[in-house]
Write a structure and sequence with these properties.
It is built from 13 helices and 17 strands. It has about 350 residues and is α/β, with parallel strands linked by helices. It has a domain of about 160 residues: Rossmann fold (3-Layer(aba) Sandwich). The strands form five sheets. A seven-stranded parallel sheet has the order 3-2-1-4-5-10-14, with helices on both faces. Strands 11, 13, 15 and 17 form a four-stranded mixed sheet that branches. It has a two-stranded antiparallel ribbon with strand order 6-7. α1 links the parallel β1 and β2.
């Protein structure tokens, strides 16, 4: 099938999701001119620059907080907005200025570029737009290694399969989640007012090799790296047993969805989707520990912390029903495959990753 785009801008293009989308797009569509814009604030993002260069992707050292940096991109017919300050704890220990300027004002600047250049706009949002207290109020059961959502729920948009786009949005969700939700609302306004074509993906936990994982963002890589490097870990909150659950999505599975969406942009224009691994591709921290032990051959100390962590949630699972119905896409890469692939990447690159992970 012919690809309708010629010049693609990927913001956050040296970050985890952005660099993967850039590299995989270039591999599938070699004729594309792809520009990856990034401010390189996150430690480890500089390691992606040689990979981008080798693939023939232009790197632009810029910041989405600067409209001039964005307007320097003269030719663009598609913007993949992957930039973010992605930590759910961001802004809680001081001024939220960088978080808001990046995640909200940065998106507005990207929308302005799309308006001026008449570019299509695909936005990576987050499941963190859903309010914490409502999520933690849901009925659940406790199994041997994980918490499970009950099928019967009083809250719309929730079931044992996870969360649909109908889940209510009223309530506190974290400063991070609020900036992404505000961005979603502005995207819809720009679509209506200026005729932009837009798609929004509310992503759950994304993971894979080349993610510079930390405890507050990129926890899968952080957990695996702690096993490889022999660092201790903690099960925070919910009884300290590690039964809290997240679905996880390999970044290649995300790319396969984005590729389908780009082929169908006209039909999907204005769509908003929950996107994640779903119940089938989910792990509790306790289950993740077992997978890490199997993948690395290492057993480390994981102690309990009974106090709940700020902004934490017991369970998040994506119900992909809407996006699957619209595109036919389903995630395919299993938790065991994900953990094994990341463990091999860390082990093979211990020298350059030891100071980062």
């Amino acid at each position: 099938m012919a690809f309708k785009y010629s010049n693609v801008l990927i913001t956050g293009g040296a970050g985890f999701a952005g660099s993967h989308l850039a590299l995989l797009l270039k591999e599938r569509y070699p004729q594309l001119k792809i520009t990856a814009l990034d401010n390189l604030k996150r430690r480890g993002s500089e390691l992606n620059l040689p990979r981008l260069k080798a693939a023939g992707i232009e790197f632009l050292h810029g910041d989405i907080r600067s409209r001039d940096d964005l307007l320097a991109v003269r030719e663009v017919d598609l913007i993949l907005e992957c930039s973010a300050e992605p930590s759910v704890l961001a802004g809680l220990d001081g001024s939220p200025d960088y978080l808001i300027q990046t995640n909200l004002m940065g998106t507005i600047n990207c929308l302005e570029l799309a308006r001026v250049r008449r570019a299509d706009f695909l936005f990576l949002s987050t499941s963190r737009v859903y309010p914490i207290e409502t999520i933690n109020s849901l009925a659940f059961t406790e199994a041997a290694t994980r918490f499970e959502l009950a099928d019967a729920q009083k809250v719309p948009g929730a079931s044992a399969r996870g969360f649909t786009e109908e889940f209510p949005l009223a309530g506190v969700r974290s400063l991070y989640g609020a900036t992404k939700l505000a961005s979603e609302l502005l995207i819809e306004e720009y679509r209506s007012a200026f005729g932009l074509k837009t798609i929004i993906n509310r992503c759950g936990v994304l993971t894979g090799p080349w993610q510079m994982g930390k405890v507050d963002q990129g926890v899968i890589v952080h957990w695996i790296a702690s096993h490889v490097f022999g660092k201790s870990l903690k099960y925070f909150g919910y009884g300290g047993t590690g039964k809290q659950v997240r679905d996880i999505l390999h970044v290649r599975d995300l790319f396969n969805l984005v590729d389908r969406q780009l082929q169908q942009f006209e039909q999907l224009n204005g769509s908003l989707f929950n996107v994640g691994g779903g119940r089938e591709i989910s792990v509790s921290l306790a289950e993740l520990t077992t997978l890490c032990q199997q993948a690395t051959g290492q057993k480390i100390t994981v102690g309990p912390v009974l106090e709940d962590r700020v902004a934490d949630i017991r369970i998040y699972l994506t119900d992909n029903s809407k996006v699957t119905a619209a595109t036919g896409w389903k995630p395919e890469i299993s938790p065991a495959q994900i953990v094994n692939e990341i463990a091999r990447w860390i082990i093979d690159n211990k020298a350059i990753l030891s100071g980062i992970l």
